Request: fold
Amino acid sequence: MRILLVEDEKDLAAIVRQGLEEEGYTVESAYDGEEGLYMAENLPVDLIILDIMLPLIDGLSILKSIRKKGMTTPVLLLTARDAILDKITGLDTGADDYLTKPFVFGELLARVRSLIRRKATVKEAVIRIADLEINTADHEVRRGGKVITLSAKEYALLEYLAYKKDSVVSRTDIVEHIYHEDDEMDSNVIDVYINYLRNKIDKEFKSKLIHTVRGSGYILKDQKA
Reply:
């Protein structure tokens, strides 16, 4: 899952970004409203975390602009303001949730998970493909009842394939959703991570779930279904 974080307090932005990345999310950062608006309109993201008080363009103006253009990406507002009127204004403008600074990272993370699940076409917290179970709430993965330990990047790739289960996902789709815009990538990096996943998800099991579609990409699918 790819998140856009628009926050001008760089120390706070760094803490939030690091925490989210440790949980397996890909995070793009903008530090002013002008950059934030451009990225919100042009990057494929699953969630926007948006500060209200920003230089150049304020957060509410960004929110109004993307909603006016019909964009339905979930938006979580961050602000130091605690007045009820500010909260009402933000929600009426089109925000999906609201968090007042200072906040505990665990609460931010819970709200992020809730908004992403609400947006996802897969409504249940646990995604199941054959005997593979992916708990999107706590990022726990099991196959055949056995817990499988994945790195943050491996989990992000598996979760994305799972949300798109039974559908072919192209390399371009994978890059756009789980890698940073400024990442320097070798041409075979996707193959490398697919192989990592296969070694952990498929290697010890007779039924294989991760399949290559030549010339198109990859698919997570139970062939017996």
Observations:
- Residues 126-220 form a domain with the Arc Repressor Mutant, subunit A fold (CATH 1.10.10.10).
